[in-house]
Amino acid sequence: MGAPTGRALKTISYNLHEGRATLELADLAQVHDVDALCLQECDTLRLPETVGPLVLAGATQRNRLGLALYYRPDRLHLHGHELRPLRRSMHDRFLAPAHERLLAVRFEDLEDDGALLTLASIHTAPLSATNAMRRHQITEALGAIRAAAHGSAALVVGDFNYPWFASSLARRLAEQGFEVSHSDLPTYVRKRFRGHFDFAISEGMHIEKVKTLQQAGSDHLPVLVEARVKAPVPA
Predict the structure, then answer these.
(1) The domain 9-229 belongs to what CATH superfamily?
(2) pTM of this prediction?
């Protein structure tokens, strides 16, 4: 693969707080000229098919708090998507359905020499679960994406509910070949909690910028990730 020829891929991850922030999406997409939106806590039955220039690639069907992903078709060519259940926490067992916690979509980047990559939206178990449970879900998700990617790059963004002991998580994932990237400011600042709940995990990507944006209707702040495919991932 040659040197990148286009601009960095712009992806926004946003937890919509049970759909309350859905009306913000069109402005976010336009103001930040994004190529993809990775969403959590969607009302998937009421999501529009398009958000400005972005098209719906896929969404969960049975989750109480849905996931969705939009993409810019003149930048990204869709190759298909996959929904993955992850290990269920106690919260998931009592407040079902909540098992579809990963939505992964495979693309060809038309502005980067046709580089293949997987974009994914993830929402791990809430703070009522343990960090060990969330680590298992994250590791399970990354393993599934890597197995399906066949050596191509991956960018996983979303609400990881992992604001504490994040450096330990980063070290564990680095040993497996993944990079954790946090934004410049906390992504959750309400109630008694404050921290980076929302961030990015990547493989085979060069992360140029991760920035926390402003919000209105959600208890989370959206996160903008600017990245490029770096190189094929060793098999």
Answers:
(1) Endonuclease/exonuclease/phosphatase (3.60.10.10)
(2) 0.92
Q: Tokens 């509910």 identify what position? A: 161
Q: If you average pLDDT over every residue of the chain, what do you get?
A: 90
Q: Using an 8 Å Cβ cutoff, are 187 and 197 in contact?
A: yes
For the segment 154-177, what is each residue's pLDDT rounded down to a tens digit? 999 999 999 888 899 999 999 999
Summarised one tens digit per residue, pLDDT across range 86-131 is 656 555 554 554 568 899 999 999 999 999 999 999 999 888 889 9
Q: Confidence band (pLDDT; 50, 70, 90) for 73? A: very high
CA–CA gap between residue 154 and residue 105 (Å, rounded): 10
Residue 212 is which amino acid?
Answer: T
> Hey, what are 193's tokens?
């909690």
Write down the residue that tokens 């191509």 correspond to.
152
Preceding amide of 234 cis, omega within 30: no
Tell me the pLDDT band of 5, cut-offs 50, 70 and 90.
low
- As given in the structure block, the two tokens for residue 182 are 């946090």
